[in-house]
Amino acid sequence: xxxxxxxxxxxxxxxxxxxxxxxxxxxxxxxxxxxxxxxxxxxxxxxxxxxxxxxxxxxxxxxxxxxxxxxxxxxxxxxxxxxxxxxxxxxxxxxxxxxxxxxxxxxxxxxxxxxxxxxxxxxxxxxxxxxxxxxxxxxxxxxxxxxxxxxxxxxxxxxxxxxxxxxxxxxxxxxxxxxxxxxxxxxxxxxxxxxxxxxxxxxxxxxxxxxxxxxxxxxxxxxxxxxxxxxxxxxxxxxxxxxxxxxxxxxxxxxxxxxxxxxxxxxxxxxxxxxxxxxxxxxxxxxxxxxxxxxxxxxxxxxxxxxxxxxxxxxxxxxxxxxxxxxxxxxxxxxxxxxxxxxxxxxxxxxxxxxxxxxxxxxxxxxxx
Length: 369
Prior knowledge:
The protein is of the alpha/beta class. 27% of the residues lie in helices and 23% in strands.
């Protein structure tokens, strides 16, 4: 199997491609430009090639704006999305408006996911991709709409790879700390949810003081304001002894014993999207639910492009090789200097995957049991 962290700039597009022809995608977008992710899709897959599963961490444009092209270029069989409450849908729309990243596809996906996907599905396909909502951990919320609800933390039995011990395990970790702070700030300044909903429905964007709302956003909830992120573990169901090394176009001799770094890593991977791992509680929640799989995790995608608001120093414990996806020149200044400093001081092997072709990182993972 080849695991690739592809160069799309300020966004995310990761693939796992098995010898048996099975293809898995995690996130599919870029705020550097849709053309960046579309080029990588065309370079990675053949037209009409089957993709068995697409996992979407959250519905920000830099993680989904390449999905329409992927659906029209390849035959996608299943799409896994995080379940969103009505409040989270409102929050997603607000942030898209504040960051000027609204799109028809995002609006359609929030309103009616199946209809949104049908618009772009290849006409030669006889069926539209199956849609699944991954429910939050320990949740009794009821699913709605035209997606099938699946629980967090359960290995997906229908995603059978050519490696018998390999599993995909999605987790929808809700983290309402920042969203609650944002809504408290809005309420304190005279905005209620009904009013905000009406703001979004109006066609006159100058009727309301969006700059005021933007200031509240920046004051009460700095960083990435999504209340959840679909985390996916990809790796052995039962820990094994297999180890892998990264392939990188400009790989200096950082893995030599003299460097103080380990020279091989467990073959499992943790895709974190924009998960808020900063607090001790959020990191403990993540690792507690993943306790059976953590010994097999050797590669971790650093959450939210290396933002200091989502980073936990435990990521630099030495067990993991770290991948940061961020544009070479992005307005958010990701990855943050403090994050990079922590990794460098602890001699942790890490790669910054940008829009530059040579920044791509790949792993070749033995499929034999």
